[in-house]
Amino acid sequence: MAVIVYLPNKGVKEVSLGPESKIGELIKAASPATVGFTDEQEDQEVYLLDESDELSKDSKIKDHKAFVIHRCKKVMVTIMYPGKHPYTHAYPPSTLLKHIRKDAIKKFNIDDVAGQNLEIFENENQNSKLNRNYPVGNFTDYPTCGVKLYLADPNAFAG
Question: Alpha-carbon distance 23 to 20, whole Å?
Answer without folding.
Answer: 10
